[in-house]
Amino acid sequence: MTAFDYDLFVIGGGSGGVRAARLAGSLGKRVAIAEEYRFGGTCVIRGCVPKKLFVYASQFPEHFEDAAGFGWQVGEASFDWKKLVAAKDREISRLEGLYRRGLENAGTEILESRAELVDAHTIRLVKTGQTVTAERILIATGGSANPHAALPGHELCITSNEAFDLPELPRSILIAGGGYIAVEFANIFHGLGVDTTLIYRGKEILSRFDSDMRQGLHKAMEEKGIRIILTDVIQEVQKAPAGGLIARTLEGQRLAVDAVMLALGRDPNTQGLGLEAAGVAVDEKGAIVVDDYSRTSVAHIHALGDVTDRVQLTPVAIHEAMCFIETEFRNNPTKPDHDLIATAVFSQPEIGTVGLSEEAACRKYPEIEVYRAEFRPMKATLSGRSEKMIMKLIVDAASRKVVGAHILGHDAGEMAQLLGITLKAGCTKDDFDRTMAVHPTAAEELVTMYQPSYRVRDGERI
Ligand code: NDP
Which cofactor names does the annotation list (predicted)? Predict the structure, then answer.
């Protein structure tokens, strides 16, 4: 028995914190976890999960339209925003309950309070003022939407937090940003019938993705009726005298909309946590600095997930938590592996991707082969929808390894998960070629692109 109240104190009940607390508890450690809001964190409460539910909701108008090509006549459809929000709330409460039950079953003490560090071993529970001590501390407080405080009128805008619970569905919305959240919500709102405009400062949306994915999605979104403004930013947001908002842009546009949503990245939640008092170092963005084992500048304090600003993804936080437990409680030092993370953008069409974009691969390898297919998916033949699917494999010519795989189209996220295994396993293009196709699927294209579409040597297409 140590002199501390707990073997492990976890601050933050999101994906990473809950996983670590649960695993440590099930190992018989004395564990407490503090959460100031709701268990489940951003992903469950106001991120990935409600977002995906809203994506499903927003896809129905296209399903109704497509049905006609298959002989169905669908009557007049109507949509009830409040019903969707209520159904989403019920599902989230159910999931939150599962998170709590998992912690309880592992013997973890649940503390519904904000927790702040007093010193390197002492934590204060803000709700009661009580202080407790712990041998090890894990900080997993996540991140929050960048409020863009420098923007005049930013307080009139919403972020993804509010977007999930708007009292009414706006008739029109302007979304700022060109990343995951901006693109996903532009498609959600458009699908639900909202007149949607996206404004992004760069030359093309989704700056870190493969150019074919970026351009292909841009085209598909515009064809659906989403307006995309590039190389421009909002300069000011004001209330319009007749209701709604007016956004003025740097390039002189004046946009009258019901709502403005900012999706300009997420900041680490480190404000007021007492990190200085505990001696925990942060970087210039306020993210907690950690080593390869998620250890902070104080050896017995660890941090993981979005608060460390490594890769802001739920599965990454969970993986980091499992590595933390292996290292600290199972005597098996394990570094989180951040290489070749498959991800999806739940836009419409979806993007699924793993590995290097063509542009990044060109910078890394002297010669690459690009296998590219663009085609109309089978369902579109009868539905009449013009949307195209794009599949792309990037191969290092010297080793024949597939170093990047990118898909734009239905179920791209599902396919990206499986492609993630092949890239992780180091599969070569020859492994893809000798794999039998599953017919008729869209994914069979991935194993039937036998000839390169083009090669790029020293940055030049040949
Ligand atoms: P992203 O980092 O994806 O995108 C932020 C966007 O905001 C970029 O387009 C960026 O431009 C732009 N931006 C940043 N600051 C400014 C500014 N001052 N003025 C104008 N534009 C600005 O962040 P998101 O907020 O979309 O999402 C946060 C994180 O959450 C993501 O990084 C992702 O890891 C995760 N996420 C994952 C999802 C998934 O897996 N499907 C879904 C949603 C979120 P530029 O590109 O030029 O820097």
Answer: FAD
